């Protein structure tokens, strides 16, 4: 086992000692020695199975068989979640074969950042994670259930389901993916058309045609953004069946994996004699494994906040420095767009998760002896699922890369560094994704151009005012100010300027998309402008140093000058009204900093990480 990873893991264990112990005591107290519904009164139980058929009612009257909750993020607008439409009946039939019952416990909202990018609804995106966690809690609150199946894929859905799963940590829980859509227009071609549109070289019709050729079918978007990063992280934590993450939807293999996941959760319940609750299964080592895999693949920066949040729900305290130090210890092993040309299907064809597991395990970069839904040990995950005569079996996965431009080895990685750099300086602390940056773009010293909104940058770009070296400062985008919307619409104009030879970068207290790439972006800046962070004192023309090699982020203005300046004032200008934003004021005001998960759910009464 890599000594640095062991050291960081122990640091997290020591830091989390009190909160983790309190959490484990809590879930131990919620464990039942029999089925959970046994604690219900006759009236309670009658309500709980009133709509069931006679066979299921008879099963639920007894105490020998499990009742499994299905929680789903299905809706048919989101391509990634549309396949879930048929899952409940498949799951119910599979669980019935084991002698148990599965009930659809509740649906959770699922919004698409791809639809809301640059729109008012994006201001709700991050907060939707906490709504999903609370919605899942409502679904599981009836105390009918002995295990749970979580159906979710995209950006905030899986983290929200994870927070809730950790909160209900006494329940065995399995996550059930739906898989990526088939490859369409290559991502690099899509990005090229976006930049052509930003330059006025093509019109809206050409842009829509390119976007439609890229996003064209049911399934997850094929780039390595937050959705696919979620799937990778969940599998590395042992919450998926081995190799389940990137099997295409609407295939026989996908359906058999769904049935197998349904059966598997019944093998982990108290009634099975093999009780393994998710809160005990996921420990500090599992969390470190998740971060290592994210870094080794150059995954989404959004997971820096999400892992912190769901780890905290399990009493485990993670911070940005842990990500930084693990990044120093982990090599970059994959090139998947935006940090390469390949999409997630090509990654799968080159060896996929089984090969990634093998590389990480053989190099001692992950804790192999963790608990998973398949038992102890990650070695099981070096296998891949296949159908033999219509039956689901697992066979050994690839032992070498099918394409060394997509999956590298630990001995010859794409980079010795995991692709994430924590930035520190007088401006505060932020994160910078380095895995996609071009040579020569890691260090930028340039004057600031300050914006209060991403649309202001678009206006300045279209007016030709940004044909120069500069660092765009987009502030009042943090959790408490705006709910921390993604600023992915900034990527095409800044990319155009970079291609013209200008040195450009971004500093913001907001987020960038999981698809962010070649433009250096110091994001998630803490403290945010609304909390009085120094970003609120920056003026256009101030020099800023962004050094992605040393991790320095410094406003190069004399302290005496800064002392004279007032903090800029946040102009609400309707940002808290419309598209439902007025309903989220209570949540927005209570969001924590990005480094503590940008979460509204943890207060002094929370029994997880506090």
From TrEMBL:
Biological pathway: Carbohydrate metabolism; Entner-Doudoroff pathway
Cofactor notes: Binds 1 [4Fe-4S] cluster.
Pfam families, sorted: ILV_EDD_C (PF24877), ILVD_EDD_N (PF00920)
UniProt keyword list: 4Fe-4S, Carbohydrate metabolism, Gluconate utilization, Iron, Iron-sulfur, Lyase, Metal-binding
Keyword Metal-binding: yes
One record GO biological process: D-gluconate metabolic process
One GO MF term attached to the UniProt entry: metal ion binding
Catalytic activity: 6-phospho-D-gluconate = 2-dehydro-3-deoxy-6-phospho-D-gluconate + H2O
Residues that coordinate or bind [4Fe-4S] cluster: 154, 221
InterPro entries found in the cross-reference section: 6-phosphgluc_deHydtase (IPR004786), Dihydro-acid_dehy_C (IPR042096), DiOHA_6PGluconate_deHydtase_CS (IPR020558), ILV_EDD_C (IPR056740), ILV_EDD_N (IPR000581), IlvD/EDD_N (IPR037237)
Highest rank taxon of the organism: Bacteria
The Dihydroxy-acid/6-phosphogluconate dehydratase C-terminal domain, residue ranges: 405-598
Entry's EC annotation: 4.2.1.12
Any single GO CC term annotated in Swiss-Prot or TrEMBL for this entry: cytosol
Uppermost EC category: lyase
Domain Dihydroxy-acid/6-phosphogluconate dehydratase N-terminal: 68-378
Cofactor(s), by name: [4Fe-4S] cluster
Record-stated family: Belongs to the IlvD/Edd family.
Classification via NCBIfam families: edd
Main function: Catalyzes the dehydration of 6-phospho-D-gluconate to 2-dehydro-3-deoxy-6-phospho-D-gluconate.
HAMAP family: Edd (MF_02094)
Name of the featured protein: Phosphogluconate dehydratase
Organism: Cognaticolwellia beringensis
Gene from which this protein is expressed: edd
